[in-house]
Design a protein that fits this description.
With about 180 residues, this protein is mostly beta strands. Helices cover about 0% and strands about 55% of the residues. It has no helices and ten strands. About 25% of the residues are buried. The chain binds 2-acetamido-2-deoxy-beta-D-glucopyranose (2 copies). It holds the Pfam family Dirigent.
């Protein structure tokens, strides 16, 4: 595993944005919009030191192949490299609900909570469809805090590891956001 590319907090470009004026009393203001790319790994454990717990389900959830209606809350470690013992850069905290009757696809609502890279206290909020079987899942980033105020963007997620025996899985993330 090449070490260098795993760290990437890259401001790719800055754009000057002119906010529209709707009255002569309003000042024309310029704000800088930045574009940031983040690359990291998220570790989920369904057994052992669990990071995800089922909190609710329909009475009929287990009659569906993909447990339609079941909701899970999670708090996964984010690391710079793919190894669980790699440098911790934050957490992914939120929930997902099985929301597709005939496919393993989930409504995912969660926050990426960063603690490193000069981003301690900054968060990004994700809301989208996580289709487990897709080689690459794309979820919208709908907002953010601190360094990521006014954030809009998307996360591309690929499975790095999915070990059914140990119940451990690792997702690789590339997150692209525009923010102030
Ligand atoms: C992860 O790191 C640990 C401790 O440094 C090491 O023993 C292990 O082999 C590593 N695992 C992988 C998959 O690289
Ligand atoms: C992040 O901020 C919190 C609260 O201000 C602080 O307790 C913590 O030590 C900081 N973590 C890092 C890695 O700087």
């Amino acid at each position: 595993m090449a070490k260098a590319p795993t760290f990437s907090l890259i401001s790719i470009l800055s754009l000057g944005i002119c906010l529209p004026t709707n009255s002569q009393n309003t000042k024309l203001s310029n704000t800088q919009a930045e574009r940031t790319h983040l690359h990291f790994y998220a570790h989920k454990a369904l057994r052992g030191d669990v990071t995800a717990v089922v909190v609710a389900q329909a009475a009929t959830s287990n009659t569906y192949r993909y447990r339609f209606g079941e909701m899970t809350v999670f708090d996964d470690r984010l690391t710079e490299g793919p190894n669980l013992s790699s440098r911790v850069v934050g957490r992914a905290q939120g929930m997902y609900a099985s929301a597709d009757i005939s496919n393993p696809a989930y409504l995912s609502v969660y926050n990426l909570v960063f603690t490193e890279w000069g981003l301690n206290g900054s968060t990004l909020s994700i809301l989208g469809r996580y289709a487990s079987l897709s080689a690459e899942r794309e979820l919208p980033v709908v907002g953010g805090t601190r360094n990521f105020r006014f954030a809009r963007g998307h996360a591309r997620i690929r499975t790095y590891l999915d070990d059914l025996e140990t119940g451990r899985s690792v997702d690789e993330y590339d997150v692209y956001v525009m923010h102030s």
